[in-house]
Design goal:
The complex is a heterodimer. By secondary structure, chain A is an alpha/beta fold. Chain A is built from eight helices and 13 strands. Chain A has one domain: Purple Acid Phosphatase, chain A, domain 2. In chain A, 25% of the residues lie in helices and 17% in strands. A seven-stranded mixed β-sheet of chain A has the order 1-2-13-12-3-4-5, with helices on one face. In chain A, strands 6-7-8-9-11-10 form a six-stranded mixed β-sheet. By secondary structure, chain B is mainly alpha-helical. Classes of the chains: A alpha/beta, B mainly alpha. The interface between A and B is large, with 40 and 46 residues.
Amino acid sequence: MDDHDRLELARDKARRAWWRKARASSEIRRTRQEMDQELRRPGERPDPSLAITRRIFLHKSLLAGATAGAATYGWFPLVNTLDLAFGAEAFKFAWVSDNHLYPKNVNTRFVEKATRAVKEVQAMSPPADFLIHGGDLAQLGDPVELDLGSDILKEVKIRKVFIPGEHDWYLDMGAKWQQLFGPPNWTFDHKGVRFVGVDTVSRGPDYWTAKKMTPKERMGHMATLDGSVAGAWAGVGRDQLEWLNRTLSNWPKANPIVIFTHNPLYEYYPPWNFWVRDWREVHEVLKPYSNVTNVHGHTHQVLYNEIGKMRSIGMLATSWTWPYPPEGVPVLTRCKVRVDPGDHFDGVGWSRLTMTAAGKIENQYVMWRKDKDIFADAPWDSGCADNINQILQPRIADREWPYYGAYK
Amino acid sequence: MKGTRYVLTGVFLGLLVMLASSGTDQALAHKEKHTPDQLKAFEDVFMEQVKIGDLLFHGDGATEKKLRVTLSKTGMACAMCHPFGSDNHPYEFPKFQEQINKFATLRDMINWCIEKPNEGVKIDPDGDAMKALETYIYWSNKGSKLDPGRH
């Protein structure tokens, strides 16, 4: 087989993959509807008091002097409420994720933004009860990157809990991450809420052994969002599903559960590996519970979805923002505004979540966007509606092997 | 003497015309029907550029080295913000580009992204790397509706 034949073969494969994806578009919608019908009886929603509202407020920077008195606009795009059946105590917790740190000498911007987030978390008043770090602290799983992230996070003195992202894991298969942050899944109860950290990244099928990849090559392909080499890597896994089932089995069915994952727990644009491949099984485990909120990272986008009785909220990255995919954005999501790539603080940030005394959860995106509304009023400013003319096809260069520098 | 000069000039021009007409077949080749082999060859040239552009777009160091370009000094690659070439909107150029504050082509925008978000080194707007990047971006958006000037 000569180079031309190989290229022809690769092109055919790309075309077939594209058509499969195009067909999958309607399949995704149908599957979601079927899952929803299966999991939710007529008239049921995650919670009757759930409201999607939009409130704009001005919040002063929590960092004294850090922004030279400049005000930052924050946004409550979604106020998610859930009723508690008992007297709940108000508390806050914070989410930071997707810092994608390189070594300090390679990229100072990401260090600057991760540092800003942890300083703002530490400055919260009243303080947060804990910080959840949602994964992708490092970009390429380098121990130098993970150590740097760990040092930055030391600024936060409150309780910290961690779940891994794929960027933290696939250089040494999680060795350094676990040494720094402990087991990748866990659970604890706090003021009437059961919190569960689920690992969605470590069970990727082996795509490296047969191709004799070095750990760096393995990590490189995992780190490529639109790559095809790593395949459908995100998953919860049978063993962890059983663990989740056991973990929840002694919890009252109507009491609140918050599940932290790196990836969203529903089918969301598989070509970019946003999804968790066994998301249907996750929903089967969660089916008996009526107050489940999933908070996830990975997608670097404002996202909201409901499937069955579970609501799902996507968090911002501190590093950079991703465009919405051409299809599969949940219909309940109000998309973020198009961001300015010239301003590396635009479209990124962290999240402040509050469990109110009235028993409601509020999610507040803290997006570092200066002097502007971060929610589009007109379609041409929306990160979703702007792409009406766009048709995309998957990349081609990684469908041949060897990959690196392989062109003539 | 003057007449001789005219004659010589005439002969020279005549020779030029003859030489030019002998190359007509090649110059007007597009007027002839294409063979499948030709079409395949044309597509091969195009797809080769797509592949090179794909590698550059995804931060392949070996390809950058071969083409002697530095597209990023932050570790960021184009595809990290533009998976599948999304949000490049190549079909909207040329247009007024707010970030550059001028009427811009796709090549202007590619160079802006290299210099600003990626902190790389601006590339030759007519060079091999630019042609490959442009080819990949157009190819990955193949089928999109042409809408020049749209912001």
